[in-house]
Amino acid sequence: MDIRPIRSDADHAAALQEVERLWNAAPGTPEADKLDVLATLIEAYEARRFPLPPIDPIDFLKAHMEATGRTQSDLAALLGSKSRASEIMNRRRGFTIQMIRLLHAEWRLPAEALIASPHLVAAA
User: Fold this and answer.
1) Confidence class of residue 123 from pLDDT cuts 50, 70 and 90?
2) Does a structural domain hold residue 2?
3) Which GO terms describe its molecular function (predicted)?
4) Would you call 23 helix, strand, or coil by DSSP?
């Protein structure tokens, strides 16, 4: 198995091409092992080369709610307060630790995505 670190875009392109060739490898074969190792190397290279900017936690929540068909009323029911849900959705309040734990436990949201400080608007 000829596997080496991915250090350049050319190495990355070659690794992607090899993954494509190995895509349907039967589990337990040396080809499947090579595919697994290449996928790990590609993932590490892409994380370094193309880092994703942190997402605002309220934007993350809104995207999740839209994708899952949830509404502000659903958030209010979860948090136990219409006013808290409204304050969050209108960027007047961030999440408390308890809210983060609740969203993580009940809606299966990654806590890491909710921890950052959101962009809030000043009260009028």
Assistant:
1) low
2) no
3) core promoter sequence-specific DNA binding
4) coil
- Domain identity same for 68 and 99: yes
CA dihedral over 32, 37, 41, 47, signed as positive or negative: positive
* DSSP state letter for 80: T
Q: What is the extent of the structural domain holding 63?
A: 57-115
103-111: long-range pairs with CB below 8 Å, 24+: 103/61, 103/78, 106/78, 107/64, 107/68, 107/70, 107/78, 109/60, 109/61, 109/64
Give the separation between CA 100 and CA 97, rounded to whole angstroms.
Answer: 5
Task: Reply yes or no on whether the pLDDT at 1 is more than 70.
Answer: no
Q: Tell me, yes or no, if the pTM score tops 0.85.
A: no
Q: How confident is the model at residue 35 (pLDDT cuts 50, 70, 90)?
A: very high
